[in-house]
Design goal:
Aspartate Aminotransferase, domain 1, eight-stranded mixed sheet, Aspartate Aminotransferase, domain 2, 14 strands, globular, 13% strand
């Protein structure tokens, strides 16, 4: 088949955030309850959409315009409103023509990466959200270039390392920043963002900045890229409403072009993105219609603050719990609604075979694949034995091992049960890992 010739060498990244669901459904079908911690859907986890948002959407549904096509790049009034929000930050200024809507940021990410030349490379953080790494890997047919973010540094990068990677790889054309980060929840400090801008300016790069969680910050201060971008470095900033409203089913996101005319190649990329929007007619109209009304509503600010406080409390509880478990750490946090729990000794096995039933052991072994990182064993153990559906941290394109869970469970009793169940499970893993260390030490001494 001719297609085979072109498919050889293509890199396919497994989307474990949803891939784990099939296994969890089998566990649930067996009669065991499951804690669904694999995906950030606030509505699914019981965060109800407030009545005032429902009222605004209901009102819009009764207008004919919400059923019609809108401008290819999005409703002009909404784009003008969003440009105004950005400009009030007193950073790099844009206008409505610098904004284009998409059916969710996944759509935007695929379009932006897909239009880059094959030879060009985007330098991604490690770990990173799979939509970005998958789009880059699918385009270049190989593993993406990455800069490291370490739990010991609160999952923040080292600017010298970023600069050295760029200098060693002249094919790098762009830097990716996710702020607040997914999967770690880390909120980037202002000086670090400025440092990335300086690297981009020094090497003639543009920046892709994913700010989908910009309004979900419960620790520290959120600095938007436009505030430190200046007037020389081009950037595509990605935003959306799916998480904060919350309305993930709206599939509504947008990109903002900054310093579009500073570079002919970047300007051509933006033109190509806009042209693609024209060929698909437009993105979904209804959510665009209601954005200005929702973001201008008197209760919008207090709604955000209330949710941020709840997330802060939950993150605090998780940190306190993990602090009681040897061999595990919980750094990051501050924004988004995820917590990462990392293995301090990532190559160390702690699968507690002595307390696992034979049925669960066989199930875990059937799920494991050759050369999978240790956190897959941890993830499958948590699911098979304790009903916790988490995501292995290594599936986010990092050598760091651990799990990502959400902060979204709205039932306080169930959240407390999740934490106690996770604590017991991790302590059993930690105890087994200690036994294995002692055995190895004893064997080494005998030799």
């Amino acid at each position: 088949m001719r297609l085979q010739h072109y498919a050889n060498g293509r890199t396919m990244q497994k989307y474990e955030i949803r891939g784990i669901v099939e296994k969890a459904l089998k566990i649930q079908a067996s009669g065991k309850p499951v804690f669904w911690e694999n995906i950030g859907d606030p509505v699914h986890k019981g965060l109800g959409v407030p009545d005032w948002i429902k009222a605004l959407v209901s009102k819009a549904v009764l207008t004919d315009v919400s059923y019609a096509y809108c401008d290819s790049k999005g409703i002009k009034e909404t784009r003008s409103f969003l440009a105004g929000l950005s400009n009030r930050l007193n950073g790099n200024q844009i206008n409505l023509n610098d904004i284009a809507f998409f059916n969710g940021l996944g759509d935007a990410i695929a379009r932006v990466y897909g239009l880059l030349p094959f030879q060009a490379r985007v330098l991604l953080p490690s770990p990173t959200y799979p939509a970005h790494s998958g789009a880059e890997a699918g385009r270049i047919h190989q593993k993406p270039l990455t800069y490291s973010c370490h739990p010991q540094n609160n999952w923040l990068p080292d600017l010298d390392e970023v600069n050295n990677i760029v200098e060693a790889n002249p094919e790098v054309c762009a830097l990716l920043i996710i702020n607040p980060d997914n999967p770690t929840g880390t909120v980037w400090p202002r000086d670090l963002l400025s440092g990335m801008v300086s690297i981009a300016e020094k090497h003639g790069l543009f920046i892709i900045c994913d700010e989908i969680y910009e309004n979900i910050v419960y620790e520290g201060e959120m600095t938007r890229l436009c505030e430190v971008l200046g007037d020389d470095v081009p950037a595509i900033i990605m935003k959306g409403i799916s998480k904060e409203f919350p309305w993930p089913g709206s599939r509504c996101g947008w990109v903002q072009y900054h310093n579009r005319t500073k570079c002919d190649a970047f300007s051509s990329l933006c033109d190509a993105i806009d042209h693609g929007k024209m060929t698909e007619v437009c993105s979904t109209t209804l959510p665009q219609v209601v954005i200005p009304a929702i973001m201008s509503h008197p209760e919008y600010g207090s709604w955000k603050t209330s949710n941020q406080w709840i997330l802060f409390q939950k993150m605090t509880q998780i940190r306190e719990m993990i602090a009681t478990v040897p061999g595990f750490g919980c750094s990051g946090g501050g924004g988004a609604f995820y917590a990462t729990v990392h293995l301090e000794n990532p190559d160390e096995s702690g699968l507690p075979l002595s307390v696992i039933s034979e049925t669960d052991r066989q199930l875990i072994e059937s799920w494991m694949q050759p050369d999978q990182a240790q956190d897959y064993a941890l993830t499958y153990y948590l699911l098979a034995c304790h009903g916790i559906c988490a995501v292995p941290l290594s599936s986010f394109g990092t050598t760091q091992c651990g799990i990502r869970i959400t902060l979204l469970e709205q039932d306080e009793n169930r959240f407390a049960l999740l934490l106690s169940t996770l604590q017991d499970a991790l302590k059993a893993w930690s105890s087994e890992a200690k036994k294995n260390r002692l055995k190895q030490k004893s064997a080494a001494q005998e030799v």
